[in-house]
Amino acid sequence: MKLKYTTPATAIASCALMLAAALPAAAATAVPEPIKLHDVKVAVNPQEKTLALKLDFDMNAISLPRDREIIYTPVIISEQGTDSIELEPIVIAGRNRWYWHLRNSDAEASDSHIYRAGKTGHAVYSEDIPFEPWMGKSLVELRVASANCCDTPEHQPGTGRRGNTDIALIDTERPPVMTDFIFAPPVDAGPVIKSIEGSAFVTFVVNRTELKPDYMINRRELAKIINSIDYVRQDKDATITHVHIKGFASPEGPYDNNVRLAKGRTETLRRYVRDLYSFPDTTITSSYEPEDWEGLRTWLTDSLSLPIPNRQEILAIANSPLEPDARDKAIKTQYPADYAVILKNIYPWLRHSDYTVTYSIRTFTTVEEIRAVYQTDPTRLRNVDFYTLAQSYPEGSDAYCEVFEKAVEVYPNDEISNLNAANIEMKRGELDKARAYLYKAGSSAHAIYARGVLDAQLGDYQSALREFEAARQAGLPQAQSYIDNIRSIIDYHPVTILVDTAK
Fold first, then answer.
1. CA dist list (Å): 65 to 6, 165, 419
2. CB-based contact 141:155 (threshold 8 Å)
3. What's the total number of domains in the chain?
4. What range defines the domain where residue 381 resides?
5. Is 134 exposed, middle or buried (0-12, 13-18, 19+ CB in 10 A)?
């Protein structure tokens, strides 16, 4: 209810907006009694844009002459003093002034902020107003004025910074979330191991295991294996550690004979390559697959251009638990036309020798060497090399971040690489990318800590607190600073009450 304050002699519309302190005596200039509040509550909700003020005055502590009243006006003022708002006042009146307000009010006194001194235990003032952005850092004051029945209300100074009584300080800005990231050094897992893989379609005379290098296209196919080995041998940073050859035969013909042919032909090819380079038998090894049924399944699935009408039925046979000879016979007898296409266009590709040349890359010992290799072929670097290189750049610089990003590109499943990449993305504010990396970062103390950092940045403070406490228990003492930070955020209250209450 909007109140108007007047005197019998004059109509002074501004009386309600003046501020004064409680007076025990009749003179307006007397020293006021201290404001006695039973309770003060200020509730701020910036998200819902509301501010609620509740003042519970202890009426038993206020004694006034019959013709005197005290006018309390709450004021909210911004930190810089550039914005403010006055709320409706509350009036504590002596006996005569109380009755005068009853007679001259537009509503019942019980619906207004007018109370009779000494007759009510508590006078509860409550106002809800829209929250404005400037209120995020503001001060709630209580201006006090006192008047006799025929006097203009007179301001009664308080002890606050602007000459009023400071009630509450509002500051909705939470303590900032820390942005301390821990980049973990990788474990040296030894030299980088790389390999070259390929398939050679070496042709043998029907039902024979002897290798004829000049037979049909054998020179070309043997060159695939030789060139791969020579490529590694010419690399000054590489050392061949293993060569493996696996031979395959096509499914036609008796299975037992295919075992003999696949085993014999693969061993013949292994010895041929071994003797070319004088490899020890421990360096070059072989294995065999008598019938390449997996290859047949792949061809049937992928070679849709071939005229094989009963493709799905043949796939079902190829996947069946039948013995190999029974599978081949079933396809041949049930789908002879399709089988002829398979025999001509697919089976020749199932007679192949797959090879793998495995080699190690020497360890690079200086930052300069690592940087040079990074520019030419970063796949030759160990995980620890990327970390070493990153440390040579200012932390957080573009070059620093680029190195960690390249590390996770080269080692996409490495936990430490994913952890460090997650830290980079969090520094950039790319939290979704960071979350994806953390999924693959493992469960080390550093990974737990990083997940806490992510939760904190996302505003999930309870989860962040649990993660940091777990990281500390896992042996990472740096987590304590974050624990203190998150607790200060969780415990933060945007309102500080500045007056003592009688509670």
1. 18, 23, 74
2. no
3. 3
4. 365-493
5. middle
